[in-house]
Design goal:
It contains 15 helices and 14 strands. The chain is α/β, with parallel strands linked by helices. It folds into two domains: 123 residues, Alpha-Beta Complex (Aspartate Aminotransferase, domain 1); 227 residues, Aspartate Aminotransferase, domain 2. The two termini are 24 Å apart. Bound molecules: ligand T4K.
Length: 402
C-alpha cells in the first residue's frame, strides 16, 4: 500500500510486486493432459502435415464457431497473407491503422497497398463512415479488425462491400470465442482470421485459423497453405507453407477443454477492475456491452491527462517500476511505423481519432496468471497515482525522469 510519493518504486520505494506481471502471460490449462497428447503424437510418429490432432482441432473449432470450414495454420500472419491472396485482393485494401502491425504487413508483403482508415473512438474499430471516402478504382477489399474482441460494425461493412463489390476479411485475432448479434465470430464477411499466439487467451504456442462458409475459398486456402499440393506429386496451385504442427494442435485441443474457465477468469478480473476503477476521474475502462459473448482478454484503459493530472506515458513508467508491465498497444499506430511512415508521411491528417487514441490507451494484466488480489492491488495503486497525479508528475520532472 502506497501512502506517500516516496513509497513509489520509481522514487526508490519497494516495488508493489516482487514477481513481474505481464500482459499476455499464456493460459496453460491442464499441463498433464497436454503432455499425454504430446506423448501420443510421438508414439504415432506423425508430427505435422494434417495429422490426427489437426483434424480433430479443425472439426471442434468449426462446430464451436458454427462455420462450415476452419483451416488451422502456423500463425495468424501467414493465415492473413494466404486469405488475402486467395480472395484475390490486389491494388489497395482499406484497413485501420489502429491494429497490430501484422494486419497491414500481410498486405504490403504481397505488394498490396494498405489504405489506413480512421477508427470510431467509442469502439476503437474501423469507422464505416470513413471507409467509403477511401474507396478508389484500385480498391479491392476491406479488412476490419475486431479490436480487443469487440466485434466491429460487421453489418455496415458487409453492406458497403456488397454494394461496392469489394472483398471483406475480418482480422479476428482478438475475437476467438466472441459473438455478434447471436452469431459466433468466424462466419462474418468472406472469411475471418484468428490468432492462437502464446499471448492470446487461447493459445497453440504459435498458431492461427481461417474460417469461412465459402467452399471454393476454403479449397483454395487449403491448397495454398500446403504448397498447392493436391495428393502426392501433384501441385495444382501457387502455395506456401502455412501448416500447423501436431504439437500446436494438441495444445489447442487441451486449451479448448479449459476455454470457459479462461473466459471466467478474464471476466472476473475485468469486473474487479471495473468495480475498483468506478468513478475514478480521467480513466475510461473500455466497455464490453450488450448481450454479445466476449472473451475479456484485454483490460484497456484510456487516460485523459487533463483530468487525471498525469499522462499515459508517465503512468506507464510508474507502473513498470512497480513490476506491472502495462503496455500501450498499438502505439504509435501502423501509419507511423515503417515502411508506411515513409510511404504515407501525411497519413496522420486523415487519422485524427487514431492519433488521439494511441496516446491515451494502456493495457493492464489479466488472465490466469493474475489473481483477484493482484487486480485489487493494481487498482489501489492506480487510484493512489491518479489522486496524486500532478504531484508525481512534478516530482518526476524535477528529477528529469519524464
Ligand atoms: N492481428 C492482430 C490484431 C493481432 O493482435 C495479431 C497479433 C496478429 C494479427 C498476428 O497474429 P500472430 O501472427 O502473432 O498469430 C504480441 C504478439 O506477439 C502478437 O501475437 C499479438 N498480436 C500482439 C498484440 O502482441 P508483442 O510484440 O507485444 O509480444 P511480446 O513478445 O512483447 O509479448 C507480450 C508479453 O507477453 C511479454 O511482455 C511477456 C508475455 N509473454 C510472451 C510470450 C511470447 C509470456 O509471458 N510468455 C510468452 O511465451 O506482440
Amino acid at each position: 500500500m502506497k501512502t506517500t510519493c516516496s513509497d513509489l518504486a520509481i522514487f526508490g520505494g519497494v516495488p508493489a510486486f516482487s514477481d513481474t506481471l505481464y500482459i499476455g502471460r499464456p493460459n496453460i490449462g491442464d499441463s498433464s493432459a497436454f503432455l499425454a497428447k504430446a506423448s501420443e503424437i510421438l508414439d504415432r510418429r506423425w508430427l505435422t502435415n494434417n495429422g490426427a490432432c489437426v483434424q480433430e482441432f479443425e472439426a471442434r473449432l468449426s462446430s464451436l464457431l458454427g462455420v462450415k470450414h476452419c483451416i488451422v495454420m502456423c500463425n495468424a500472419t501467414i493465415a492473413l497473407e494466404i486469405t488475402i491472396r486467395a480472395l484475390g485482393m490486389s491494388g489497395e485494401v482499406i484497413v485501420p491503422s489502429f491494429t497490430f502491425i501484422a494486419t497491414p504487413h500481410s498486405l504490403q508483403w504481397q505488394q498490396i497497398t494498405p489504405v489506413f482508415c480512421d477508427i470510431d473512438p467509442r469502439t476503437h474499430s474501423i469507422d464505416p463512415d470513413r471507409v467509403e471516402e477511401l474507396i478508389t478504382p484500385r480498391t479491392t477489399g476491406i479488412i476490419g479488425v475486431h479490436v480487443w474482441g469487440r466485434p466491429c460494425d460487421t453489418g455496415r461493412l458487409e453492406e458497403i462491400s456488397r454494394r461496392r463489390n469489394l472483398r471483406l476479411l475480418f482480422d479476428a485475432a482478438h475475437a476467438f470465442s466472441c459473438s455478434h448479434g447471436g452469431r459466433m465470430i468466424g462466419g462474418f464477411g468472406d472469411a475471418e482470421v484468428f490468432s492462437f499466439h502464446a499471448t492470446k487467451f487461447f493459445n497453440t504456442f504459435e498458431g492461427g485459423a481461417v474460417t469461412t462458409n465459402n467452399d471454393e475459398l476454403a479449397t483454395r486456402i487449403r491448397l495454398m497453405k500446403n504448397f498447392g499440393f493436391s495428393g502426392y506429386d501433384n501441385v495444382i496451385y501457387i502455395g506456401t507453407n502455412g501448416k500447423m504442427s501436431e504439437i500446436s494442435a494438441a495444445m489447442g485441443l487441451t486449451s479448448l477443454d479449459h476455454l470457459d474457465e479462461f473466459i471466467d477468469v478474464n471476466r472476473s478480473n475485468y469486473q474487479a477492475y471495473s468495480v475498483g476503477l468506478a468513478g475514478l476521474p480521467g480513466v475510461r475502462l473500455f466497455p464490453f456491452e450488450g448481450t454479445d459473448r466476449y472473451n475479456y482478454q484485454y483490460v484497456v484503459l484510456e487516460i485523459d491527462p487533463q483530468v487525471a493530472g498525469i499522462g499515459r506515458d508517465t503512468l506507464l513508467k510508474v507502473f513498470h517500476a512497480e513490476n506491472i508491465m502495462a503496455r500501450k498497444y498499438f502505439y504509435p499506430g501502423c501509419h507511423r511505423m515503417e515502411p508506411y511512415r515513409s510511404y504515407f508521411p501525411h497519413a496522420d491528417l486523415l487519422l485524427p481519432e487514431t492519433e488521439g487514441l494511441v496516446c491515451r490507451v494502456m493495457l493492464l494484466p489479466t488472465g490466469t496468471a493474475v489473481s483477484g488480489n493482484d487486480v485489487v492491488r493494481i487498482t489501489e495503486l492506480l487510484k493512489y497515482v491518479l489522486h496524486n497525479g500532478r504531484e508525481i508528475t512534478q516530482e518526476l520532472q524535477n528529477r528529469n525522469l519524464c
